[in-house]
Amino acid sequence: MRVLVVEDERGLASGLAHGLAEEGFVTGVAYDGVDGLWHAVHEPHDVIVLDIMLPGLSGYEILKRLRAAGVWTPVLMLTAKDGECDEADALDLGADDYLSKPFSYVVLVAHLRALLRRGAPARPAVLAAGDLTLDPASRRCRRAGRGLTLTAREFALLEFLLRHRDEVVSKTDILTHVWDENFDGDTNIVEVYVGYLRRKIDTPFGRRSIETVRGAGYRLRGAGG
Description:
Elements: E1 2-6, H1 10-22, E2 26-30, H2 33-42, E3 47-51, H3 59-68, E4 75-79, H4 84-93, E5 97-100, H5 105-118, E6 127-129, E7 132-135, E8 140-143, E9 146-148, H6 152-163, H7 171-179, H8 189-202, E10 210-213, E11 217-220
Parallel strand pairs: 1-2, 1-3, 3-4, 4-5
Antiparallel strand pairs: 6-7, 7-8, 8-9, 10-11
Helix pairs in contact: 2-3, 6-7, 6-8
C-alpha cells in the first residue's frame, strides 16, 4: 500500500516514513504544500497523511484542489491540539479522517488501516447544470438528451467548471487544475478552449451556459444557461 506523508516537520515526517515502512507501507514524503500537491495529483497513492500548516500551500488548500480536480484518495488530516475548528474545516473540505497532534503512532496506523479498508469514496455520479450533464466515471457528456463528443482537455475543463458551477473561476485557477500549476505557456489557451466548449455545449442549443466575467474569469451557470 502506498502512503504519501505531507509534513514540514522533517523529524516527524522521517519518523513516520520509517515506521510505516516497517509496517509494510511504501511511503513517499513531501515537506511543503507545493510538492505535496504535485505528488498527490501525479502519483498513485492509497492514502495521504496531510498536515494543515505547511509552507507554500496549506493542507486546506491542497485538499480543496485535490477534490476540485477529482482526486478522491482518502486523506487523513493532522490538526492542531484541541483544534475543533481545524477538524470541522478539514471534514467540510473533504478530508476522510483526522488526528490531533501530538498523536500515538499506533493510533495513526490504526486510522490508516481503517481508511484503506474503507477505500476511496465514490465520486459524484453525475454533474449537472440544467439539461447539461457530465458523468466523470463513464466519460460521457449530454445536453438535452443528445450525446456530445469532447476531447480530454475539453472534458476536464467542463468538469472543473461544473464542480464550481455558479462560481467565478480565474484563468489561473483553470490553468492550475485543468493544465498544470507549472504551465508557462500562453494563458490565452484558456479562452481558446472555452470557445471550443461553447461551440459544442451552447451554440447548437441556443444556450449561454459559460459566462465571461470581465477581469475575473468564467462562470458556468447552474441553471444551464
